[in-house]
Amino acid sequence: MLNKTLAGLAKGLQQGEFSSVELAQAYLQRIKNEDSKYNSFITVTEELALQQAAAADASRAAGNASIMTGLPIAHKDIFCTQGVRTSAGSKMLDNFISPYDATVIRKFNAAGSVTLGKTNMDEFAMGSSNESSFYGPSRNPWNTQHVPGGSSGGSAAAIAAGLAPAATGTDTGGSIRQPAAFCNLTGLKPTYGRVSRYGMIAYASSLDQGGPMAQTAEDAAMMLNVMAGMDPLDSTSVERAVPDYTANLDAPLAGLKIGLPKEFFSASLNPEIAALVRAAVTEYEALGATVKEVSLPNTALSVPAYYIVAPAEASSNLSRFDGVRYGYRCEDPTDLEDMYKRTRGEGFGTEVKRRIMVGTYALSEGFYDAYYKKAQQIRRLIQQDFVRVLSEVDVIMGPTTPTPAFKLGEKTSDPVEMYMEDIFTLSLNLAGLPGMSIPCGMSNGLPVGLQIIGNYFAEEKLLNVAHKFQQATDWHTLKPAGL
Ligand code: GLN
């Protein structure tokens, strides 16, 4: 019963091949047996899962099952989950039991899905490798010497290792798409405002967006149906009808206009990745698409602009972790000042401290105009590039990452080298646009991702474009050796 897609599991449940409880038990057992190799879960919610699975079986028996009823999902440990530790990968929240559910969690629960547990992540979602987690790095099931990507690395590793059929992630600068690319998955970062951020621990509020990580575009569509929608508890969520994202998956692609940004195929791109992305585009031509070269001239500025805006917002968001209200507090403080300093000094890891310092500096009087304001101006230029190109083509395609999954420790000594890993993903978040990563080949035994970028609220189109490719190719069906 394991090794199926969400859609496959939904069918199995419908046809009575297995019950939700049997399914949950099978996944929990596999997590117990295997996760020491991958460290993909921070918390396994066995009791909750079995309780939800029993409730799912009961509602199916009563004739009230929806498509999601009884489907096991793992959630990134950034989504507040009532009664469950929600750590955001940080020592600061190691003792935090959330008193409420994030809207995303509430919606999955309401749809009848089963929470397997909370997945590993870079501390406060800051990272591209999962190595900044307080709980130690997660490992890539394709090669455990390599990183699974970040920051949603635990979600990606769990799915790739068959420990969960699908998972949630969040993407501030690539954290859904990059780990999806590194672990041969389908990941979707929705348009800013499409999915509620309520109860999603904030990293950079104007960039953060939750989304699905799955084995196929069809599964991602099923999940987005649950996740999307206006939420009165998130003033940046957008009031706009939610289509059935599974309805148009099979629409033909004849006449689809694809833009290939010449800046994405620059010297920093690994040549094997370039070749695989070009081969994927050729496949799209066979499906009826036309292709033209386009230009996103400010691409190179996305890394410096993002690494001002994101730390600036983070420095403000993380000021709430002061040892007073919740989370870690240092031992025996001598006075208030000492408590603040030592709580934050001991509770945050190195990368988080680096971001707080960069962000605070960029926002400080005298430097604000030179850094933060300038970064926001560049952000607008980046957005305008996309708006112009997306008025000429339906989707933009390119690589998700400049290299396949790198080795653990390979980039930890040089933060800028780590930041360069995000060159192709950051600009979408700066512009607020939706994007996907889907499997498009293998390089030395490691997966490669094709990035597909669409216009605002074009998630339905992206899923259709991704699904048609997955009907025509079988890259997405490849599994790590032995799994
Ligand atoms: N790697 C980027 C960062 O470290 C993006 C992380 C994310 O999307 N959460 O900020």
From TrEMBL:
PROSITE patterns: AMIDASES. Keywords: ATP-binding, Ligase, Nucleotide-binding, Protein biosynthesis, Transferase. GO terms for biological process: translation. Its EC number is 6.3.5.7. It catalyses: L-glutamyl-tRNA(Gln) + L-glutamine + ATP + H2O = L-glutaminyl-tRNA(Gln) + L-glutamate + ADP + phosphate + H(+). HAMAP family: GatA. This is Glutamyl-tRNA(Gln) amidotransferase subunit A.
